[in-house]
Amino acid sequence: MEFSSLIDVCIKALKGFDADTQAADIRLQETLDSYRHLQDSDENFVIEVFSGCVRHHNLLVVTVENFFLDEGKKMLRKDTILYRIFSYLILFRLDDLGFSTFEKFVAKHDNLKMHLFLSYLFDLPKLQSWLKGKWCNIYDAKFVEESILPNLLNNMDSALKLIANLKDKLENKPQPKKQPSFTQPQPFNLTKVKPRSVPLPEPVPKVKTTNTIPSTTYKSPREEMELAKRKEEHRKRSEQMLDRVRSLSANHTKTAKSMKTQERLNTIVKEGDAQLKFDSYKAKPVPKKIMENAQPIKLNAAAILREDALYAKKEEEELKKIVGVLSGEGTDDDFQSWKRQRDEELRLEEAEERIRKKMIGLISYEEAMLAKQKLTENNKQKVKKLKIEADKMLKEYLRSQLQLEEEIREKVLSIQEGHQQAKDAQLKLTEMKRKMVQEVHAESKALMQIAVEEAAKEMERKMKMIQEIRAFDRTPTSTEKFVDLTSTAGYGFLCEMSIAELRERIALIKEEKAQELEEKRGDILAEKVSYKKMIEKKLEAISHNRGIISQESAKVMEEKKKLKSPPQVRSSSIDAMQKKLEEKRAERMKYRSSEQMTMNSLPVKRTVNLEAEKRAMEERRWKELERTRERVAQMSTKTVGYRDTLLT
Length: 648
Known about the structure:
76% of the residues lie in helices and 0% in strands. By secondary structure, it is mainly α. Helix 16 runs parallel beside helix 18 (572-600).
């Protein structure tokens, strides 16, 4: 622990300690308990200093009081305990402590305090004259000369050096640097190496000859090779048989197709490939508004010829189709009607399957709800039984508790009687002690009165001297100095001005800056107003455009809904499931109505309380809404007033 912290612990232990009213051991133990982190050596130091200061209290008080009267007139009285601790260390423990350790204690405190106190205590003429006499009034002269003065005289030279160093520090004198001690080279003390004996060579060990590795180690057995060969032959034979069967089946199922079917297959394949081209470019159609309001395009000769060729090509294709129909070829209309019919059937089947799954889900939901309601009913019955059993157990428990309390009450009464007898005996003992203390107090009071009278006389003499000194110090001296704020310093500079002129210039500059700031605020507010108007116009245009787009999207959605309207599906299985669903729902509603009847049978008082709480909650909500509206209105009025002031 640091030296300053140890001194602080000792000061805390001695501060407020009175040996007449408090035991020293208890006080020391309380201080050590508050500083549990102290090491054993630190605890021993604190115990030694505390016990020494208590033992030699009168001597230390006399030494410190004389210091305040002689040297420490400018020092504070709150450092009295600090000076007592240092007095004890110097007078009784300086040789045991060591002067180097004592210097570390001194270095951790104020230089001025330590300089004055050490110069007072290590002053040889004072020690030999009246300070020694004061100590001899308390202790024997032999004890003072043999135990106290040797500690001071043996360390006088070191103390004077320490006092000189403290004085140099107070006067800010540079400290002399210690001259470094240079190392002196010395020859190495090497021992002579003894000659080593040449060791005899070790015999070379003979390597044993190893047997050669047999050739069968790296070869697989003959049986495995034969098995692998047979597996390979069987695999090749099975592959040949599989190829033969495949070729026979392909030739058997192969049939010749007509040209007409071949063309239709090709067209179907091309249509499928065309649908699979997702990344190909798709041209967007021209909007209808542009086509309606568009002006007729003036065609040139090349455009007219291209359009004529296009129409001629279309006419040839139509003629080919008519000729094919007349010759007995079929058309795509039958296929398209069959495809439409097939799609409608698939759509009806999907809708029926969807409705069936939905019905199954609803029926399972109703069954689950019924099972849950039945389970809750069973749980309620169980809870009623448990409540009856719990009431019985509670009554038995209360009966046993009453018996136990009665027994405890009787025991407490008997114990209280014993306590009362002990208290009476203790009161008698305290009365005897009080009488003895009063007698001792009266004797000590008489002795104290005599000591107080003597101290009052001494104090009166000292107060007279202090009054004379203070009266001398309070003689009035004029320290006023007149300052003219309108005059310059007179240094001869061109920009020289008085304090009054400087204040006026600063005030003018502040007014100009405030005016510029107000102008900037007005410009910013005007820009904000114009920007707000522009934003409002854009919002109106955006809302108008959105309304038009929403109308168009609504029309498109209506058309899509018409196309996506689900088909009407009727079947016996769905009707049976619907009937079953209605039965389950009716049964669940029946259970629900019975539960509501039980809920309605609750006491009227509870319902009234619930309604009152609901009304109070609504009133609080409305009040909060009104407060928020008032707050918003106040803020808006403030902002409007601020804008008006800026604009004006």
